[in-house]
Design brief:
Strand content of chain A: under 5%
Largest sheet of chain A: none
Oligomer: heterodimer
CATH class of the largest domain in chain B: Mainly Alpha
Radius of gyration of chain A: 20 Å
Strand order of the largest sheet of chain B: 2-1-5-3-4
Shape of chain B: elongated
Structural class of chain A: mainly alpha
CATH superfamily of chain A: Fumarate reductase/succinate dehydrogenase, transmembrane subunit
Number of helices of chain A: 8
Structural class of chain B: alpha+beta
CATH architecture of the largest domain in chain B: Orthogonal Bundle
Number of strands of chain B: 7
CATH class of chain A: Mainly Alpha
Largest interface: A-B, 46 and 58 residues
Radius of gyration of chain B: 20 Å
CATH superfamily of the largest domain in chain B: Alpha-helical ferredoxin
Distance between the termini of chain A: 69 Å
CATH architecture of chain A: Up-down Bundle
């Protein structure tokens, strides 16, 4: 048997590996993100939160990791686009009747849609917080991120957009977390149920924690 | 039973097809789905119309020839069986049943409900075998193989190559099929010798044929008439990664 295989990364499985790797990287980022944000719950007028935000905006190591983060997001999105286009081509003639609900979860079939919603949310989110912070760092000014949190989340429409974005995130994570492990070939009768449980609780906790922030700020519970 | 059938009619791969409605009467609930098609075809022939072309062979659920998407599900509403093992008692009198062929770029329609599944043969020919002369049967315990491995290999080998996984997958991915074929050898010492080239070549051919990629929805596993599990896809992914690390 001679070997006639092309490059790993351009193969269908290789592309999935990249999706999984970048996905897990973004999942790990969310943990850091939510922990930094949770500093608002010290409820000390944003002192602790601003310290954490200042560190994240100015530390050189974080700056380097941030470049990696953006590369991770771009790679995840570009691979998803390529895969979605290829997968669409794999079935040019659709079924007149398709009873998909009996064999798979709707969110596992809607990762592209959920991802698109997330990307749109991400753009809004970056415009709300990341861009003003960058401008401040560029100008050499001290940016009061906590104050901008309060200003942004005083708007109920923005709060609603964030909550919708988080619903997309929840379902995206619900499938994505455990899916990544399956892609890496980690499927085991003993450990897979644990991985699935981890994925579920991770998605629930991350979403609830993130969602609590715009809500408490909007309701003025955090001063 | 009286039923309304909406069946995909397409003269050839080059022509457009469409769903055509056929009422059928006095169908016995004990008929298999294919027998019901035989009755309909008898009627069509007697009316000088062309019979509906569909794949079938053994009609006992082991050959993998029958291939219909019935009311949006590969092999119909029951799980763990092929279309030939589906009986009309699974439907209600007066039901409307929509029957379509497997739909995938890599499975072009030949006529009506028959699709060309030679893409699977070409994938198989890239490594779905052990290329040594096996000679006569060995002593049973000559090669010690753990029972669990032998069972897992046998379960993977139960794949009949019908293509329901492709038909069901939202991406028309053939990962479950290829994974079953890779797994049945990967678990046995005879298959390990060529494991690296096998998985690489079979995956390469799978990609060439224009099947989609796996998004782990798990639909294939549910609709597979032989219950081939997703563990096989994970095993193939592992094998593929290891093979690519080796050379």
């Amino acid at each position: 048997m001679s070997n006639t295989s092309p490059n790993f990364l351009t193969s269908s499985i290789g592309k999935k590996f990249l999706m999984g790797l970048t996905g897990l990287f973004l999942i790990s980022f969310l943990v850091v993100h939510v922990l930094i944000n949770a500093c608002i719950y010290f409820n000390d007028g944003g002192v602790t939160f601003n310290m954490a935000a200042h560190f994240m905006a100015n530390n050189i190591i974080i700056r380097v990791v941030e470049v990696g983060l953006f590369l991770g997001i771009i790679l995840h999105v570009v691979q998803a686009l390529i895969l979605t286009l290829q997968n669409g081509k794999a079935r040019p003639q659709k079924y007149a009747v398709q009873n998909s609900a009996v064999s798979s979860k709707w969110y596992s079939r809607s990762m592209g849609l959920l991802g698109t919603l997330l990307l749109m949310f991400l753009i809004v989110h970056l415009a709300n917080f990341w861009v003003p912070t960058k401008i401040a760092v560029f100008k050499g000014e001290e940016h009061n991120t906590f104050e901008s949190l309060k200003t942004v989340f005083a708007n109920p429409i923005i709060v609603a957009v964030y909550l919708l974005g988080l619903v997309s995130l929840f379902y995206h994570l619900l499938h994505g977390f455990q899916s990544a492990f399956q892609t890496f070939g980690l499927n085991h009768k003993k450990y897979t149920p644990a991985i699935k449980a981890c994925g579920f609780w991770y998605a629930v906790l991350i979403t609830l924690l993130f969602a609590s922030m715009p809500i408490t700020l909007y309701l003025g519970l955090i001063k | 039973m009286n039923l309304t059938l909406k069946i995909w009619r397409q003269n050839s791969g080059k022509e457009q097809g469409q769903l055509v409605t056929y009422p059928v009467k006095d169908i016995s609930p004990d008929m298999s789905f294919l027998e019901m098609f035989d009755v309909l075809n008898e009627q069509l022939v007697s009316k000088n119309e062309s019979p509906i072309v569909f794949d079938h062979d053994c009609r006992e659920g082991i050959c993998g020839m029958c291939s219909m998407v019935i009311n949006g599900r590969a092999h119909g509403p029951k799980t763990g069986i092929t279309t030939c093992q589906l009986h009309m008692r699974s439907f209600k009198d007066g039901d409307t049943i929509v029957v379509e062929p497997w739909r995938a770029q890599a499975f072009p329609v030949i006529k009506d409900l028959t699709v060309d599944r030679t893409a699977f043969e070409r994938i198989q020919s890239k490594g779905g075998f052990v290329s040594v002369n096996t000679g006569t049967a060995q002593d049973a315990n000559c090669l010690p193989i753990p029972k669990d491995d032998a069972d897992a290999s046998f379960n993977a080998a139960a794949c009949i190559g019908c293509g329901a996984c492709v038909a069901t997958c939202k991406n028309a991915s053939a990962m479950l099929f290829v994974a079953a074929k890779v797994s049945q050898f990967a678990l046995l010492p005879q298959g390990k010798i060529e494991a690296t080239a096998r998985v690489k070549n079979m995956v390469a051919q799978m990609d060439l044929e224009g099947f989609g990629s796996c998004t782990n929805t798990g639909a294939c596993e549910i609709e597979c008439p032989k219950g081939i599990s997703l563990e096989n896809i994970a095993r193939m992914n592992r094998e593929y990664l290891v093979a690519n690390c080796k050379d």
